[in-house]
Amino acid sequence: MFALIDLHVQKYTHPSQQDLDLLHALIEHKKISKKTLLLSEGEICRFELFINKGCIRNYYIDEKGEEVTLQFATEGWWVSDIASFNERTHSRMFIETLEDCEVLWLTPDTKEKLLHQAPCFERMFRILVQRNLSRIQERLFRTIATTAAEKYLDFIERYPEIPQRVAQHYIASYLGFSPEFLSKVRTRLSKK
Amino acid sequence: MFALIDLHVQKYTHPSQQDLDLLHALIEHKKISKKTLLLSEGEICRFELFINKGCIRNYYIDEKGEEVTLQFATEGWWVSDIASFNERTHSRMFIETLEDCEVLWLTPDTKEKLLHQAPCFERMFRILVQRNLSRIQERLFRTIATTAAEKYLDFIERYPEIPQRVAQHYIASYLGFSPEFLSKVRTRLSKK
DNA sequence: CGGTCTCTTGACGGAGTTCAAAGCTAGTGG
DNA sequence: CCACTAGCTTTGAACTCCGTCAAGAGACCG
Questions:
Q1: Are B168 and B91 contained in the same domain?
Q2: What element of type H or E holds B94?
Q3: What is the number of domains present in chain B?
Q4: Which residues lie below 8 Å from residue A187, measured CB to CB, with a gap of 6+?
Q5: Strand D reaches within 7 A of the A35 CB
Q6: B85 and B177 share one domain
Q7: Chain-chain contact of A68 with B146 (C-beta, under 8 angstroms)
Q8: Which residues lie across from B71 on neighbouring strands?
Q9: Is residue B165 domain-shared with residue B115, that is, in the same domain?
Q10: What are B's interface residues with A at a Cβ cutoff of 8 A?
Q11: Is residue A104 in a domain?
Q12: Are residues A116 and A28 located together in one domain of the fold?
């Protein structure tokens, strides 16, 4: 149950066995079924969760009702609206499970206790946010500077397992164009 | 010289006079002339600077040589490639001054000393990164979900002083379309 | 003054959208 | 185990937005 998260934590910091025990004691194990909405626009995000099994996505909805997917998260990823969680502000995004999930769940309360009693986790969360920032900066760059075909090829190279797990129109909404056009791009690419 | 940064710091944390004195002692005051390249792709970013006066931009360059502006920073903003600075990785971006600047300059060394001796600054930097992340997430959303005219109107509302300070083609490269098209959008808008 | 940089304007082309229809696939209930 | 439905993907035609190229007009600086 904690094998994956222990491995994950050790990539970013050097926890003692005590630190890990504390984490195991504080973090809550949950099962969540497919298509569950974990966060809606306007709410304050009260969780930071680690995926042991399953797939979750964050997305925005624009005025026309179109969805823009911000992130697909699978085993070994953290999911939250970090700004909303930390500053108790109203979120603009939605978070929903795409598959049946098994997750480890921190609340504002348990996270605070964890950081207070085992400060080595500070480092981990700081690095995670920084990497997230730098990843999304480069994604913004690619969104502006590359064509649809380039974006798609780049995506399946970065996340080869995602296309096998999520519906294609979700990928289109991540890449920033219509599902119809993604379909056309794919047929064009496969003809080569 | 430290009036602006003191005010800034106090928005995010509650420093003692000692903390502020330490900051003043460690941070280096620099003048940098217009059109100076502070960071190039491939380098490791060795500064985190606070702008007292002037204007700086971060940008990427794609394979065709086109620039994509990531950020305009003016008085009261921090400028750095945070991931490169903190993890000593090679940066993919460029940072250059657009005006003559007067800045306060932290190196990896002085920042570490600062955080070590005045831990209250940890909180500030953490919140800054989080806000930056959430801002860029929403910008990615708008980049995908809105038209050129909407992006431009949103930009001049968010940053009304920027169009008066930087060349228009830089704004186009921030918004993600060609300078020619920005010009056309502007004439269309002004005819209404 | 002359050169460079910037902004504007127009014609044309191409990438991506929208709408509509049809084919597929998976899940559901009988 | 089959039949049905609902959601997903594909395909095509018409259209729109935006890019590219090229030319001209200012504006600024040495």
A1: no
A2: strand B94-97
A3: 2
A4: none
A5: no
A6: no
A7: no
A8: B58
A9: no
A10: 60, 62, 66, 68, 70, 81-84, 86-87, 92-93, 122, 126-127, 129-134, 136-141, 143-146, 176
A11: yes
A12: yes
Given pLDDT bands bounded at 50, 70 and 90, which one contains residue B192?
Answer: low
Q: What is the pLDDT along chain A (192 residues), one digit of tens a residue?
A: 999 999 999 999 999 999 999 999 999 999 999 999 999 999 999 999 999 999 999 999 998 889 999 999 999 999 999 999 999 999 999 999 999 999 999 999 999 999 999 989 998 999 999 999 999 999 999 999 999 999 999 999 999 999 999 999 999 999 999 999 999 999 999 876
| Spacing of B183 CA from C11 C1' in Å | 16
Rounded CA gap, B27 and B8, in Å?
A: 15
Same domain as A127, residue A150: no
Beta bridge partners of B57: B72, B96
B140 in any annotated domain? no
Amino acid at B137: Q
Host domain of residue B166: 146-192
- Chain A residue whose CA is closest to B177: A144
Model pTM greater than 0.90? yes
B154-169 exposure pattern, b = at least 16 Cβ within 10 A, e = fewer? ebeeeeeebeeebeee
Category of B65 on φ-ψ map: left (φ > 0), alpha (ψ -120 to 50) or beta: left
| pLDDT (tens digit per residue) in B63-122 | 889 999 999 999 999 999 999 999 999 999 999 999 999 999 999 999 999 999 998 999
**Which residue, A133, A159, A178, sits at the end of a domain?**
A133
Residue B191: pLDDT band (50, 70, 90) is: confident
Q: Are residues A28 and A72 in the same domain?
A: yes
